[in-house]
Amino acid sequence: MAWVAIENLIKDYQGAKGEQVRAVDGLTLAVEEQEFLVIVGPSGCGKTTTLRLIAGLEDPTSGSVSIAGCSMNGVRAKDRDVAMVFQNHALYPHLTAWENMAFGLRLRKFPKAEITGRVGGASEMLGLTECLDRRPEELSGGERQRVALGRAIVRKPRLFLFDEPLSNLDGPLRTEMRTEIARLHRQFQWTMIYVTHDQSEAMMLGHRMAVMARGQIQHLADPLTVYHTPANLFTAQFIGSPSMNLLNGKLSENSGKFFYEKENARVELPQTGSDSLKSWAEKSVVLGIRPENIIVQKPATPGISNSGMPAVVELVEPLGPETHVHLQWGGCRLTSRVTATHAWVPDEKVSISFNLNPLLLFDPETSGRLI
Hints:
Elements: E1 4-14, E2 20-31, E3 36-40, H1 47-55, E4 62-67, E5 70-71, E6 82-85, H2 97-107, H3 112-126, H4 141-153, E7 159-163, H5 171-188, E8 192-196, H6 199-205, E9 208-213, E10 216-221, H7 223-228, H8 233-238, E11 245-254, E12 257-262, E13 265-268, H9 274-278, E14 284-289, E15 294-297, E16 309-318, E17 322-329, E18 332-339, E19 349-354, E20 360-362
Parallel strand pairs: 3-8, 3-9, 6-7, 7-8
Antiparallel strand pairs: 1-2, 1-4, 4-5, 9-10, 11-12, 11-14, 12-13, 14-20, 15-19, 16-17, 16-19, 17-18
Helix pairs in contact: 2-3, 2-4, 3-4
């Protein structure tokens, strides 16, 4: 039995003009005990609303939420034994870091000795022992986030919920805190559901990631599966930076071989799933290619066998260890991720080739992956 089970969850709001706005649309999801699940998606996709429905901060329009086999429908938030870490820390400004972490335990009338022990243990775990007597305004952004995390930890809940907890931190501090959360999960094996719009955060933290859009889950799998074989066009575009190259064209067949074609662009496809490809011959398809699977080389040398195709460099983005090269190829615009071993320049003529393993073809009408 799943530790957290969500069945056909729907949440409707009333819009400014009285219209119905559906934030969560028939969501079904199972989270196992000790799992770290990340829900990732753009702003407004319903991920935070889903978290609030699990926590009991919102009531569903329909559907159910169960935790540890018990239905949470009608159960108040304070009785669900769930701890939530928010984006804005939500610390009491007049209380010290120690008092903020102890506040929930005091409300529940825990013995003083146990409160002291729990807060002390969490403080040591999070590196907060030197700043327990400071108020939030005297703490750095990272320290405030650690206090918010410590406040959740001292409760020892059966489920941790994180609502974009690192989005207000700067880059280096965000990376540090992300690593800290991953370390804590590995050490204590808590059950965690983590919401973010940052795909790199989702890829690093999650055992599985649920890609969400328009109140629905688009793809649920481990991060590498989502990255390499996305279920649909939305997932292909959203996961990955730079995003996957998606080329609208036509699938053709000649002498048992299959080709992607668009204007002056034509490339032979591997024979993987050839039976599936047959039914799409002469139909419109979308070919997906990750930027790292586009190999950029010097132009083909006349008289020497070279399988590369001619292209032109449009823009170059040096990023230190890697470079993003924007290309024009047969009427298609492509982005390639290459190592920074060569200084490509705009308008340079180059030769490109594709690694089409795995082969990714999508239906332009339904957006689903064909193969």
